[in-house]
Design a protein that fits this description.
The protein is mainly α. Helices cover 67% and strands 0% of the residues. The termini are far apart. It has one domain. The protein contains 3 helices and no strands.
Length: 49
């Protein structure tokens, strides 16, 4: 059976929208555009050699 007291101890409330937005935007994430730019630069460097 589920022990509700134990489950409540594990509970962490979700972030409010503003806090979640701040947490997301403060992370340094690589997106597809960054990967594409990096790949193009590496390709150009290899072709110059």
């Amino acid at each position: 059976m589920i022990n509700f007291e134990e489950e409540l101890k594990k509970f962490h409330p979700s972030l409010e929208v503003e806090d979640a937005e701040e947490a997301i935007y403060n992370q340094d994430l690589t997106d597809m555009a960054d990967l594409l730019v990096k790949t193009i630069k590496e390709s150009e460097e290899k072709s110059e050699q």
